[in-house]
Amino acid sequence: FRRQIREGGPITLTHQDITRFFMTIPEAAQLVIQAGAMGKGGDVFVLDMGESVKIKDLASKMIRLSGFEVKDKNNPHGDIEITCTGLRPGEKLYEELLIGDNVGETPHERIMTANEVMLPLPELNVFLEALDIACHNFEHETIRQLLLDAPTGFNPTDGICDLVWNVKQSTMPQIENEFEQGKVVNLKN
Predict the structure, then answer these.
(1) pTM given for the model
(2) How far apart are CA 57 and CA 62, in angstroms?
(3) How far apart are CA 59 and CA 16, in angstroms?
(4) Residue extents of the structural domains in the chain
């Protein structure tokens, strides 16, 4: 955001309602060390990250703290506009610290234990084997279905998006056209 403000804007967000958690590095490091000291083996801890921050509000504050005004429909003569580019594939509006609501207390008020569903090792191995096979065979629908069927709480917000496949599809007509014009040589023959 600082660079975008320095350059006169606009500031780009993926979505106007997107939120994120923020924590200082020393604070996070201290909580991680303390959680590690509590662990008995195989424990999963969740740190209290405080309140999430609306990124649009953060951008607006940064604009004002830099001595400028936000340019929007309420202030068309402002200095720097905030624009939304759209969520990227897999990006979420908000972060989920837990899959479920199953947290347990610890002696530290900002460290909780996560009591999530766990697959027994034999079932986990079967799942991972099926997932590995589907990944190696590029079976995107199977991968998605395996993840949906597993007791993980996987809840995708978007459809399947294979970025490599998308790029190949967008360049394929151009390559086929150049092949027909004799600009591309078929090396298979």
Answers:
(1) 0.58
(2) 9
(3) 10
(4) 1-112
Regarding beta strands 53-54 and 80-84, do their DSSP bridges make them parallel or antiparallel, or are they unpaired? unpaired
The set of residues, in sequence order, having a beta carbon less than 8 Å from that of 65 and lying 6+ positions away, is none
Phi-psi region of 8 (alpha: psi -120 to 50; beta: other; left: phi over 0): left
Token pair belonging to 124: 């986990």
Q: What is the pLDDT of residue 176?
A: 59
User: What are the phi and psi torsion angles at 148 (to 5°)?
Assistant: -65, -35
For the record, the structure tokens of 111 come out as 């460290």
Give the residue carrying structure tokens 């993926």. Answer: 14
Q: What is the DSSP string of 73-86?
A: TTBTT-SEEEEE--
CB atoms closer than 10 angstroms to residue 21: 14
DSSP 8-state code for residue 101: S
Distance CA 52, CA 20 (A): 5
Is the peptide bond prior to 10 cis by the omega test (within 30 degrees of 0)?
A: yes
pLDDT at position 54 is 95
pLDDT at residue 189, as a whole number: 47
> If we measure between CA atoms, which residue out of 68, 87, 86, 88 comes closest to residue 78?
68
Give Cα separations from 84 to 81, 148, 164, 182 (angstroms): 10, 30, 25, 43
